[in-house]
Specification:
With about 475 residues, this protein is α+β, with helices and mostly antiparallel strands. It contains eleven helices and 21 strands. The protein has a 21-stranded mixed beta sheet that branches. Bound molecules: ligand ISJ and magnesium ion (MG). Pfam families: Chorismate_bind.
Length: about 475
């Protein structure tokens, strides 16, 4: 049976083919339909046969935007460059020119949208750990399931080149039908057994922190974030959908993200927004300064009170507030910024937290703001450039996408980026987890070590560890 919608799709694909031939370049055709409820994690899992290695997932803390992407319609990637944010943005805009977008809905986050991220520092010496990821990597998916405030939409993206004929249209319909058939099946993947958890050079890491504290006392550096790695071994391949399922259950108050690339998968549950753009409004988060959670409500409250008045943590936090304020002031007419931090309490840890809202003037793009903000002193340090250079020099870890921006950008310039912390890289039967902490002049290496141990917990638990 051929539906009305299929007839419309056929007409549009003929138009896209004609346009591609006339203009002599690829043309995007994008269609949005409203769906009955589909669980986005089930949608992600159902892609494990045909789209493995070409999937992504995203969920914000309030479930306002949930995305699952299957297949790569077009990949945007850029290696080492001083202008990688601008290049991604310009390539995306260029690619969207003359496209045929059928989107009768007004919601943000449906239609053509790219998802991906950036490495923390493109100038850090590369190791094999991150060999499957470019310094900037974004996908326009073939299929995007968007759950926007509970409503479900499916966007299908197809690219027509000047050489395509009607066979491509037939292929589109067949593929889409197969995708829906696979959704009917139940997909449940179990996690393999965790055999070994290995901390990478903990003593050496503490020595680096000690040396950094001395250096911070001499100035002019004020803060440097230092990170370390846990390496895990399993008795079988770790499926990204199994870990995502756990993260979604265990860390629902966080941004949950996953990005597959060439067989590896980078994923995590981050509490930290870098920046969100919705029309002319920008939202950012200052998150720095940490304490453990209490074993009971009273102990938890006392730990929170102590954190709110702890000079070392308040200073760690203040550096972030000042930098984010300065960055937003450049693009915004008005800024709403509370004068004192509050607490953000999540499952394993509590943080000092200051939300920031900016009303932008002119045209400040999301990726421009990402560039301006990354890395904030919560992940890099202060001053920014010197801190990143210091990390490049002294940190043993190859951060890759850890602590860097991960998120989405739609065809109208709206989107959101989180800071990819509380994260890990799945590689077959192995996984690497990453955690860091803000080192300031009166840091103590043993407490910073314990702080990073808390920050490994969300990923460790999701992978079946303790
Ligand atoms: C660097 C991480 O976390 C960052 C560092 C914090 C700190 O040092 O207090 C707190 C929140 C995050 O901005 C991490 O989780 O790996
Ligand atoms: Mg800290």
């Amino acid at each position: 049976m051929i539906t009305i919608q299929e007839i419309e799709t056929k007409e549009r694909s003929l138009l896209a083919m004609k346009r591609a031939k006339e203009l002599g370049r690829p043309i995007l055709m994008s269609e949005v339909e409203k769906m009955n409820h589909i669980d986005p994690l089930l949608f992600f899992s159902s892609g494990n046969e045909h789209y493995s290695g070409e999937r992504f997932f995203w969920k914000d803390p309030k479930d306002e935007f949930i995305f699952a992407g299957l297949g790569i319609s077009k990949q945007f990637q850029i290696d080492q460059s001083d202008d990688r944010f601008g290049l991604i943005e310009r390539e995306w805009k260029e690619f969207l020119k003359d496209s045929l977008i059928s989107n009768p809905f007004s919601e943000i986050g449906i239609g053509p949208l790219i998802f991906g991220g950036f490495s923390f520092d493109p100038y850090k010496e590369k190791t094999v750990l991150w060999s499957k990821f470019d310094d900037s990597l974004f996908y326009l998916p073939k299929y995007l399931l968007s759950v926007i405030k509970g409503q479900v939409f499916l966007t299908t993206n197809f690219i027509f080149t000047p050489n395509d004929d009607e066979l491509l249209y037939k292929h589109i319909i067949d593929e889409r039908n197969k995708l829906f058939q696979s959704l009917q099946k139940h997909h449940h993947t179990a996690l393999p057994a965790l055999l070994e958890t290995k901390e990478i050079s903990p003593e050496k890491w503490k020595n680096t922190v000690d040396a950094m504290v001395k250096e911070l006392n001499r100035g002019p550096l004020k803060k440097v974030v230092l990170a370390r790695e846990l390496r895990l071994n399993f008795n079988d391949i770790v499926a990204s959908e199994a870990v995502l399922q756990h993260l979604n259950e265990q860390q629902h108050e966080s941004f949950i993200f996953a990005l597959e690339s060439n067989g590896d998968c980078f994923l995590g549950a981050s509490p930290e927004r870098l920046v969100k753009k919705n029309g002319t409004e920008l939202f950012s988060t200052c998150l720095a300064g940490s304490s453990s959670r209490g074993h009971n409500p009273e102990e938890d409250r006392l730990l929170g009170e102590k954190l709110l008045s702890d000079q070392k943590n308040l200073l760690e936090h203040q550096y972030v507030v000042e930098m984010i304020k300065e960055a937003l002031e450049e693009s915004c007419e008005e800024i709403i910024l509370p004068d004192k931090p509050q607490l953000m309490k999540i499952r394993d840890i509590q943080h000092l937290y200051t939300p920031v809202i900016g009303k932008c003037s002119g045209d400040s793009s999301l990726l421009h703001m990402v560039e301006r903000l990354h890395p904030t002193p919560a992940l890099g340090g202060l001053p920014k450039k010197e801190a990143v250079e210091k990390i490049r020099q002294v940190e043993e870890l190859d951060r890759g996408f850890y602590a860097a921006p991960v998120g989405w950008l739609d065809y109208e310039g709206n989107g959101e980026f989180a800071v990819a912390i509380r994260s890990g890289l799945l590689q077959g039967k192995e996984a690497s987890l990453f955690a860091g902490c803000g080192v300031v002049a009166d840091s103590d290496s043993e407490s910073e070590y314990l702080e990073t141990s808390l920050k490994f917990r969300p990923m460790l638990r999701a992978l079946g560890g303790k």
